[in-house]
Amino acid sequence: MWLEDYYNCDCAKEEVAYGAISTEHSVMCSNAAVDGDEITQIKRLLTDIYPNHSFSMVSDSYDYWNLVNEILPQCRTEIEAHNGTISIRGDSGDPVQVVTETVFRLWDMFGGKINSQGYKVLNSKVKAIYGDSITPQRCEAIYKILEENGFAINCVTLGVGSFSMMCLETFDDNGNIHYNPYTRDTFGIAVKATYAEDANGNPIMIFKNPKESSFKKSQKGCCVVTVDEEGEWSYKDELTWNEVKTDSNNELKSVFCNGNMIKEFSLIDIRKNLYGEKF
């Protein structure tokens, strides 16, 4: 909208903004739930979905280093034949360690070339990406490690992600200013797909459980939230949609369904739900 206001473009008719093709956890976890593994989906991405496009693939839904060390070598034929670049995306653990170590392992697996400055550049078929949490300090640390190990910085792609949210300005005992980011992880406010159904209505329980960050483990399947007579709250997951929508004690209510608004809430309603009599 800002570009329309100041640069006379038309977002409805022109190609104004661009984004990279990237998978999300819901996609990877759904296919893993159906296929029982991650290999099937990776090969499908390379050969059927994006055979002629570069894309990034979130790779830490369960065990990032198992995917890098064990699964990628089994997809070597498809990766080499792919008309584009597959970027392996970490999303948990220490970003500096994850993205640099990924470069080293991709070099060992797929090789590359030496550029005119004498630095190693990965095979154009693969790349390492960390699309979230990269601060200027982490970026500098990543580039330093790559340089010290003889790698060019274009072996990686780095992103800000949730760290683009506002930062809290704080002061230490010496009066130095520090900027601590508020992210969705600060307050645990992430929305993830946890349930799907196939064409025949059979339930598919979806969940992610990154080995490097257990706090990111999601619920599995549909969920029921209940409150007992003493006011104690509890929840149960791994349920089907039919089970939760017929449970009269479920405190969770549908708000959107198939793109339609089922129940509208005002700001006052939401605040009363949050604070009750305190509001």
Provide an overview of this structure.
- With 279 residues, the protein is α/β, with parallel strands linked by helices.
- The protein is 30% helix and 20% strand.
- It has helices at residues 2-7, 25-35, 39-49, 64-71, 76-81, 95-110, 136-148, 241-245, 267-275; strands at residues 55-58, 86-90, 112-114, 120-122, 126-130, 156-158, 167-171, 177-181, 195-197, 203-205, 222-227, 233-239, 256-257, 260-261.
- The strands form six sheets. The chain has a four-stranded parallel β-sheet with strand order 1-2-5-6, covered by helices on one side. Strands 3-4 form a two-stranded antiparallel sheet. A two-stranded antiparallel ribbon has the order 7-8.
- A hairpin with a 5-residue loop joins strand 11 and strand 12.
- Helix 6 packs parallel to helix 7.
- The longest helix is centred in the middle third of the chain and has 16 residues, at 95-110.
- The radius of gyration is 23 Å and the shape is globular.
- The mean pLDDT is 89.
Major sheet summary line:
4 strands, parallel
Shape: globular
> Helix tally?
9
Computed Rg: 23 Å
Mean pLDDT: 89
Q: What strand line-up does the widest sheet have?
A: 1-2-5-6
Structural class: alpha/beta
Brief rundown of the structure:
The protein contains nine helices and 14 strands. The chain has 279 residues and is α/β, with parallel strands linked by helices.
Characteristic terms for this protein:
single chain; 279 residues; alpha/beta; 4-stranded parallel beta sheet
Helix/strand layout:
Layout: H1 2-7, H2 25-35, H3 39-49, E1 55-58, H4 64-71, H5 76-81, E2 86-90, H6 95-110, E3 112-114, E4 120-122, E5 126-130, H7 136-148, E6 156-158, E7 167-171, E8 177-181, E9 195-197, E10 203-205, E11 222-227, E12 233-239, H8 241-245, E13 256-257, E14 260-261, H9 267-275
Parallel strand pairs: 1-2, 2-5, 5-6
Antiparallel strand pairs: 3-4, 7-8, 9-10, 11-12, 13-14
Helix pairs in contact: 6-7
